[in-house]
Specification:
Helices cover 73% and strands 2% of the residues. By secondary structure, it is mainly α. The strands form two sheets. A two-stranded antiparallel sheet has the order 1-2. α13 packs parallel to α19. The longest helix has 34 residues, at 267-300. The chain starts with 19 loop residues before the first strand and ends in a 6-residue tail after the last strand. Mean pLDDT is 77; it is low at 1-36 and 501-506.
């Protein structure tokens, strides 16, 4: 709409012959006013961008960025056999790539949580994506004499990706509310298994196409830089708590120390964070070791005549590709089933969110145990168990985020997401890949080296995961006990910190 003295606003100008307002076209008398003129080409472009800044578009772009985040981290796991062969390192040493990545990720998360509650979030997101994309691209040129430098590069990538995981869910939380927020968060967290699966597929496909595993690290950076530009152009920066306040605004902001004390007293938040750590432990260990475990199973079953990396330029195992495809499908099914089940169960009980998570975790543990029972005899049976176990495990990702949105007020959400991420990684996948590799190495060194024992030692080490998953289910049950009280407390805190807006739009 063009206004006197300003030239023109961005949303309403179209051409020289007609000037439009929200109610329609202006009269010819108004068009002749010298203070009114058409938008310049740059203003038209900006107006078009503003029209594209809808909440749904923003959620799609943020979800795309989340896909790339997880695709990048799992690309390395997808070519782990090649990295192990090229750098000539053991199971525990190659697992350091994931451990160093997660350690830097979790240390940086609280910092970005603090920044995300106080500064422009989309600028932080864009800078973070651009940073990790650049480091990933440069790391693909590191020679095999400098494994320590390759490990260091993964630590720097973890810092960049931490900014995204800590802040992006809070933008979605401020754009939507209630069941629509659950649906959008489900879509956002669908990116985790989808991106993880695509990472394995990308790693395997790129190395086969190029005949060199280094090319697996040269695709996601280009897409990452594209996502950074899309976020800057099309993602809005909503007012914190705008969706929850329904036109109100938060009039006071608490200190960081006060935020941390309140979160520590929030029992639903604490228990759901511990449960999330159990999920991270299992998924981190599986993502790193299941493709290698299945490759060794093929050798034991005599379906593969030799070790996948023997006398070859690149490792010939296809387990990463299959595991990636399964992860994509189970992630889609898990998140969609989780969202639908939670919405249905909310009609029966208000504690539906944590209860659905608890039941899915306990069911997942059963099928994950079966993986290590059947893998020695039947690889197809192992894939079936992986499919069911992962589907049940992935049910809770979006629901856990929604639990946080219910029990934490908007001005603390970035901090809460960041510290939940810190806790889940510290107690989960920061150590699980290395711990599994260390147990596997120890068991194998205690006995004669053979293909059978290489397979068995890794399987025995991975048996730790189902027990951790059961523990996570117990934490979700504890969350259900306190969920309603903590949700009510958050609603009361929000009403105390907010006041309705006094301005009236006409």
């Amino acid at each position: 709409m063009c206004v006197e003295g300003d030239g023109c606003e961005l949303e309403g100008c179209s051409n020289l012959d007609e000037v439009r307002t929200l109610s329609g076209s202006m009269s010819p008398a108004l068009k002749s006013n010298p203070d009114l003129h058409a938008c310049k080409p740059g203003q038209k472009f900006r107006a078009a961008l503003l029209r594209c800044r809808s909440p749904v578009v923003a959620a799609v772009i943020l979800s795309f960025g989340n896909v790339l985040n997880y695709m990048d981290r799992c690309t390395v796991a997808g070519v782990a056999l090649d990295i192990q062969k090229d750098f000539e390192v053991s199971d525990s040493v190659v697992a350091l790539l994931q451990t160093v990545f997660i350690c830097s990720f979790m240390v940086a998360a609280p910092i970005f949580g603090y920044l995300g509650d106080r500064f422009n979030r989309k600028v932080i997101l864009s800078c973070g994506i651009f940073f990790w994309s650049t480091v990933t691209l440069l790391s693909s040129f590191i020679s095999k004499e400098y494994y320590w430098l390759f490990v260091l590069s993964r630590g720097l990538v973890g810092i960049g990706e931490s900014s995204y995981s800590s802040i992006s869910p809070t933008i979605i939380g401020d754009l939507f509310t209630n069941n629509k927020r659950t649906m959008m968060l489900s879509f956002f967290y669908l990116a985790i298994p989808l991106g993880s699966g695509l990472g394995y597929i990308l790693g395997t496909s790129a190395k086969v196409a190029a005949g060199d595993w280094h090319w697996a690290l040269r695709v996601s950076p280009v897409l990452g830089m594209t996502a950074a530009a899309l976020i800057l152009l099309f993602v809005p920066e909503p007012k914190r708590g705008s969706a929850d306040q329904m036109g109100g605004r938060i009039k006071t902001r608490t200190s960081w120390l006060c935020d941390m004390k309140t979160l520590a007293k929030n029992r639903s938040y604490v228990f759901s964070s511990l449960a999330s750590a159990a999920v991270s432990f299992a998924t981190g260990a599986f993502g790193m070791w299941i493709p290698i475990y299945l490759a060794r199973a093929q050798v034991v079953q005599k379906t593969a005549t030799a070790e996948p990396c023997d006398n070859k330029e690149i490792c010939s195992s296809t387990e990463s590709l299959v595991f990636g495809a399964i992860t994509c499908i189970t992630g889609l099914l898990g998140v969609l089933i989780g969202a639908a089940t939670t919405r249905l169960c909310r009609k029966k009980t208000e504690r539906a969110d944590p209860l659905v998570c608890a039941v899915s975790m306990l069911g997942s543990a059963i099928f994950i145990c079966l993986i290590f029972v059947v893998a020695k005899k039947n690889i197809i049976g192992a894939y079936v168990c992986i499919f069911i176990g992962e589907t049940l495990l992935f049910l809770n990702w979006a629901i856990t985020a929604d639990i946080l949105m219910f029990v934490v007020i908007p001005t603390r959400r970035a901090t809460a997401v960041a510290f939940q991420s810190f806790t889940s990684h510290l107690l989960g996948d920061a150590g699980s890949p290395y711990l599994i590799g260390l147990i596997s190495d120890s068991l194998r060194q205690s006995y004669a080296t053979s293909s059978l024992w290489r397979f068995l030692s890794l399987g025995y080490a991975l048996m730790l995961c189902p027990f951790i998953i059961v523990l996570g289910g117990m934490f979700f049950l504890a969350t259900a006990l306190f969920f309603l009280d903590d949700r009510e407390k958050a609603q009361n805190q929000l009403s105390q910190l907010s006041r309705p807006s006094t301005s009236v739009k006409v």
